[in-house]
Each structure stands twice: as C-alpha cells, then as structure tokens.
Amino acid sequence: MGGVEVGPARVWLPDVQAPGLAMSRSMGDYVAQSVGVTPDPEINIYDVHEDDRFMVIASDGVWEFLSNEDVAKIVAPFYNAGQAEQAANQVVRESANQWKMKEEVIDDITCVIVFLDTKLIERSLKYRQAQIDNLISQHKETDQEHSIFVQPLNKHFLDYNLDASYEGGVKK
Q1: pLDDT (tens digit, 9 = 90+) per residue, 137-155?
Q2: Which of 14, 98, 100, 151 has a Cα-to-Cα distance from 107 of 20 to 30 A?
Q3: What is the dihedral of CA 108, 114, 120, 124, to 10 degrees?
Q4: Helix 84-102 vs helix 118-142: crossing angle, to nearest 10
Q5: What is the pTM of this model?
Q6: CB-based burial of residue 49 (10 Å sphere; 0-12 exposed, 13-18 middle, 19+ buried)?
Q7: What's the DSSP call for residue 113?
Q8: In whole angstroms, what is the distance from residue 84 CA to residue 75 CA?
C-alpha cells in the first residue's frame, strides 16, 4: 500500500487471492511449492551439554510473544515433576493467552517438550502409568456390572502419547 509494508511477507498464487500464507517452508504442500515455497526444512545443530535439562520444539505461534526465558520458567516446574506433556500444555495455554491479549487472531501453536534427563523420563512414564491405572481403577469401581477387558499398554504406546503436539490449543 503506497510502498509501505503491511504485515509479514505472504505467498500468493498468481491472479488468485490464495493461499496468502506467511511462510517460507511447507513440507508436502505442492500448491505453495509451485509459487516458490521450499519443502526443505531449516536445520540447526546444537551441542547438548550435561547440564541441559530439556528441549522445546515449538512453532512461531509460541515464540511470537514468549521469550526463551519465559518458556523456560513455564517448563521448569513440570521438569522437576517429570511431566513433559503437562509442560507442553501449559506453554500452549500461555501462548494462546498472549495472542488473545495482543492480537485479533491466533497463529498456529505447536509445542513439543523433550526432557533430556533419563531419570525424569522414567518418572514421567511412571506418572503416566499411574494416571492410566487410576482411570482403570475408577472405571472398575463405577461400572461393576459391566465386564471390561483392559489390554496392558506397551512402551511404544506411552512414548507416542508423551510426544504432545498441539495446534490452536488442540492436541493433534
């Protein structure tokens, strides 16, 4: 508009008002690739040190209003309790709250928390199993007349469910 940039750069199809997305990468999106968006991810390599405790992998919807320090303060209490999924939930909630206070729309919000201390990973798995056992126990107490079959959970199922990925506040 008159040589003044308004908002972020966007990708548009020629002669069409779509997709109009503010992005530079999109894996698997062939329409966006046809107008110059690359499918190649940006890769950064970091050395993990013995005093590193967790890793946060998040979309720009998290980082728009939260700094590294803000996110670390949110995650720390959950790290101490061995609750990675709950940490990701709280980061998503706080990100959404910040968007609601400062913008009319909310960008995508995706967050994965990885605890790097193996003892805490074990505690997190035990915590998850205790939650599942508690739910099964409650169900048995409230539904005595119905017989239920509960198949034991395996480690792969638990690992899959501990990797919390959220978009717009909803678990994918």
Answers
A1: 876 665 554 444 444 444 4
A2: 14
A3: 50
A4: 90
A5: 0.57
A6: exposed
A7: E
A8: 8
